[in-house]
Structures are given as structure tokens and as C-alpha cells.
Amino acid sequence: MEISVTVNGRTYQHDVPPRLLLVHYLREQLNLTGAHVGCDTSQCGACVVHVNGQSVKSCTMLAVQADGCEVTTIEGLATDGTYHPMQQGFWEMHGLQCGFCTPGMIMSASALLQSNANPSEAEIRHALEGNLCRCTGYENIVRAVQYAAGQMQGQAQGNGQTAMHEQAKPETPETAAELEHPQREGGRPEEPETVEDWQSENAGVSDDAPAKPEARLNTGEGGL
Ligand code: FES
Ligand code: FES
Which in 13, 149, 172, 179 has the greatest CB count within 10 A? Predict the structure, then answer.
């Protein structure tokens, strides 16, 4: 059957078998392999795409049913080389491990934010019930959606959360000496203290100062 379908802004005409599923049309005919096939029971949600703005499991829809429709896949979510906030959220909040479920998660979650810009955690979890992840335990996925919601509402780093890669980034050394010895102030090692210096500085100053080893042995105080 002849179909005309607009996918990620580009219109395609194809003669397709009536029983061809949309997910197979996308993957095999258009080579858009971001929509995954993770089950044969329509449970996993790895195949979710948007059809006329609604999130749809593309394994539950025939390609011929998409005739005349606008389809968006994960490949069409970024604009002008800039990630969609939901893609950014999964990156920032480490919402993925193997990544197999990620395209479907992102498509379902981005559809949620189109209808509910500020979902509660319960609403996020409810919206993602049709998407199964085998890896991440969902916590970071929820955070990724919250991050995207914050970004889309113009709240930089919603809830004061800091990007993980920002947290992990070491400080840039400022001087050549720091570069050489980044752990040492001024790049120079501290002068080692002598035992005599330490004893004279600390004598009688603090009760915590350790006694000489001989004294401990003699008195039995502070021994092991
Ligand atoms: S492949 Fe569509 S729900 Fe699993
Ligand atoms: S990240 Fe591996 S299945 Fe979800």
C-alpha cells in the first residue's frame, strides 16, 4: 500500500506491506534505528515515537496507519545540533546505563511535558509506567525528567542540583607551580617538621598531644 508519512520533518512516500509495523518501517525502510524493539508483547516502550504529537508504541501501529501523519523519532528531537532538554536531562542526571530503553523513555517523557509542564514525581512515574528499564532503577530517570521540566520552565539547574560532570570536574590549576604540584599550595612542598620542633611547639598546649613512646610504655597510659 502506498503511504506518505512525514518523519522528523521530511516527507516519505513508500509502497509498504499492509502488515508492516511502524517500528519496522522506521528502522528498516528509513534506517532510523533509535526506536528499539525490546519485546514482542508491547510492554517495554523502547519503540515509543510521537505520532501527531502523541507518544505511541510504534510496535503497536501499522505503517499504513501512519499514512498522512507527522512522526517524530528520537533522531528528530534535537534542533540545530542542540539536545532537547530531555536528552540533556538524561545526560546530566545519568538517567541511563546501557541506553537501550533511553529513546523510548525520552520520547514518553517529552510527550508528558508537552501536556504537563510541571509534573509531580508520582505523575512522572505514572507516565513512564509503559517504559521498562533493566538497568537504572528509575531514580535517575525521574531526576532527568525533573531536570528537563526545570530547564523547560527556565529554571536553571532545577532544585539547585549540579550537573554530575560539573561536580566531577577538577579545578583548573592557575599557576605553573600548581600545575606541577596541584595538591600543594603554591606548588611547593611544606618544610618537614622535626620531632624537636613539634615537641617544643606542642608541649603543654594540648592534652591531645601524644606522649613520648617511652613515657607510654612506662606509665601504661595511652597504650594499645
Ligand atoms: S517493542 Fe514496542 S513495547 Fe516493546
Ligand atoms: S538503561 Fe539499560 S535498559 Fe534502561
Answer: 149
Comparing 128 with 220, the larger pLDDT belongs to 128
Task: For ligand 1, say whether the CB of 57 is within 6 Å of any of its atoms.
Answer: yes
Q: pTM, whole model, 2 decimals? A: 0.71
pLDDT for 21-58, tens place per residue? 999 999 999 999 999 999 999 999 999 999 999 999 99
Give the mean pLDDT of the chain: 81
Parallel/antiparallel/unpaired status of strands 48-51 and 10-15: unpaired
Q: What angle do CA 57, 62, 68 make, to 5 degrees?
A: 100
- The strand pairing partners of 72, in sequence order, are 50
Q: Which three cell numbers stand for residue 201?
A: 611547639
Residue among 109, 117, 107 nearest 158 (CA): 117
Strands 70-72 and 2-7: parallel
